Amino acid sequence: MRRSAEHGFTPVRRSAEHGFTLVELMIVITVIGLASAVAVLAMPDPRGRLVDEGARFATRVRAAHDAAVISGRSVSVWVDPSGYGFDERRGGQWIAIAEKPLRVSQWGEGTQALVAERTRVTFDSTGMADRALVVPLRRERTRVQVTVGVNAGARVDG
Fold first, then answer.
1. 50-91 pLDDT, tens digit each
2. Most CB atoms within 10 A, among 35, 64, 95, 145?
3. Could you give the CA distance from residue 5 to residue 62 in angstroms, rounded to a whole number?
4. Domain ranges across the chain
């Protein structure tokens, strides 16, 4: 209440300008929701790009080729739907390679190699592969293909 010079006290009236209307609040909430959706869609996939995973695999295949030439032993790469690994031929047996770049690796989360069963390519001591291999990779709607040539070239397409 305010004191007026003539009457004593007068009631204070609150105008509509001191608060927000329901429509204004709904607009603000909608704008915040749209901005949040844009931010989420713009964030990169925490698993990385599928083409990068294919490139990492191709690089390791080239390293296996180099290991075969340097060691003078046959080295193979095997691929199955859940991962891949590298073996070397010792004493008539395939023995898994334990060194870091050629250890057994699982495909990243959500990634799958579209091969029916375990498939193997062997590099001899001269670096030649016994056959070519195409490894299609899929993660959700994205697909890439890693091609291993008989001359140890490995490339990613897609």
1. 888 888 989 999 999 998 889 888 999 999 998 999 999 888
2. 64
3. 95
4. 46-157
Largest CA distance in the chain: 114
**Residue 50's beta-bridge partner residues?**
none
CATH architecture of 46-157: 3-Layer(bab) Sandwich (3.55)
**Encoding tokens for residue 132?**
């070519």
**pLDDT tens, residue by residue, 23-42:** 888 888 888 877 777 766 66
38-76 burial by CB neighbour count: b if 16+ within 10 A, else e? eeeeeeeeeeeebeebbbbbbebbebbbebbbeeeebbb
Instruction: Report the candidate in 72, 107, 105, 78 with the shortest Cα–Cα distance to residue 90.
Output: 72
Nearest to 78 by CA among 94, 100, 92: 94
Q: What is the DSSP letter of 129?
A: B
Question: How many CB atoms sit inside 10 A of residue 158's CB?
Answer: 12
